Amino acid sequence: MPDQPGGALAPPPYTVAVVGLGGTGLALVRRLARAGLAVVGVDDDPAALARAEELSPPERPRTVSRFPAGLAEADVVIEAVPEPAALKRQVLARARPLLRSGTPMVTTALTTPLAELREAAGADLFALRFLRADDLDAVEVARAPGAGDAAAERVEGVLTAAGMTAYRVVDRPGSLAPGLLLGLLNRAAWMVHDGYADAQDVDTAMRLGAGWREGPLAVLDAIGLDTARDLLSRLAETADGHAAPAPVLDELIARGALGRKAGRGFHHYGREEGPRRRAEPTAPPGRRVVVVGSGTMATGIAESFVRGGFDTTLLARTEEKARAAAERVEFALRRTGADEEAGGGGFGATADRSVLGAVDVVVEAVVEDLEVKRRLFAELGAVCAPRTLLATSTSSLPVADCTEPAGRPADVLGLHFFNPAPVMRLLELVPMAGTSEHSLARARAVAERLGKRTVRCGDRAGFIVNALLFPYLNQALQLLDADETTTAALDATARSVGGQPLGPVRLLDTVGADVALAVQRRLQADPRCRAPESAPLLRQLVATGHLGRKTPGKGTRAYLTSRAGASVPAAA
Q1: pLDDT for 199-243, tens place per residue?
Q2: CA dihedral of residues 104, 110, 113, 114 (deg, nearest 10)
Q3: Which residues is 264 bridged to in the sheet?
Q4: Are 64 and 71 spatial neighbours (Cβ–Cβ below 8 Å)?
Q5: What is the rounded CA–CA span in Å between residue 452 and residue 431?
Q6: I want to staple 70 with a disulfide (CB 3.0 to 4.6 A). Which of 65, 106, 346, 363 is the partner?
């Protein structure tokens, strides 16, 4: 089945019947009517019919009918009743005898395969799959076996006329982008349930650290927490490894906090904005900073501190590494004129470890190896002055494991910078149980002077952003490994239907398969993260050296292409 956007021309003036006038059905009615299509709104509930009648003229259906009246005139029927398969089968079976021959039926079932509905609906059955009824610019369309080409052209013609880009996908529970995204959203809800991070910090982290327009919990609010909880429950029953819905969803639903449609969910909406978070206290951070390390993250962090007005020293293992790192930092500062800015800090690089003895802040940015970090923090605890703020910039290791050898719990915490450090505004702040309030206040002041926004979370592998993104990438690879889609189609649907800034394949190739595998293994080893085992395809990518951008010509797509070629016997 092709997996590119449908390209049908604008159709003749079809009449579309939408059965079920709840949130999803009304959104479809509005979209179709605004596009100038003749729309019949159909429901059994008088209140739902009244809501459809009350829509403004550009969005109001041409007629509103009590189910099943009004279906006989339809050229396409879209069923939009709630998700339980039994209800959908009942509605489709009652509608089918009333339709003209050749009229396709389209279900909005997201978690129910078409095979379970085909007997009730007949041959020309399709599934329209999306996650947010308030964002219908792009959708995924699955086609039941036996559905005719003429019916498919009619369905795609209606979608095109309504301004929806239709991506043809295989029929599977959750589809492609919606299922991937629901898994990530559920992990975000579990973070809140666990008390690991609050909703505002989770959403801020994904907006600033991953480029999302809205955070995952705001997306759940937009979907509707009751709808999302129902979808997640059904996905958890499949063999795709979806976790059970986070209990916080049930807790919010029980309080009537259903999301945006109720004015409150994980967040508050409209007039009821809720209490604003109080400003956290800060304390003078000191001016002297040492960044330990000489790689990309270390030089980026050092550059950030210089720009923030700190007197910054980069400490490398050798003088040769120090000179090379200094050149990179100084070039970056000159390129932007930052070395001439008023208020900029001084900068130097050295291999002389005596600089650690008289400093206010130390940021560790060495290789992501636990033993290397532990040896360094043992040294820092021994040589740094009392109350020196000691921070690790680890991206996936537990902060406590890295910093425990320092022997000074009040002074240590995690400061996770994002790459490129001078550009990315997010800073994940990870205090320990013993971190003093004074150290926390100083860390916040550091972030403030660097122009960063802090989010606070507990100490476990991956923190917020990585703990959400890497299992999502892992699940995407499972779809590719099962030949459920192609790399191009997966990236396209994730961006268009899922609203992601980057498709999962491009994101994986950007961060590197080796990095993804290391992080995924650390997440999987921590039961609190509820992360699945690393995908076989991810392990194969690393084993064959297909790491992505860092290995030009050897990324995910190239590996899958070569593997497919190797599996085809050569011609005699």
Answers
A1: 999 999 999 999 999 999 999 999 999 999 999 999 999 878 899
A2: 0
A3: 259, 268
A4: no
A5: 17
A6: 65
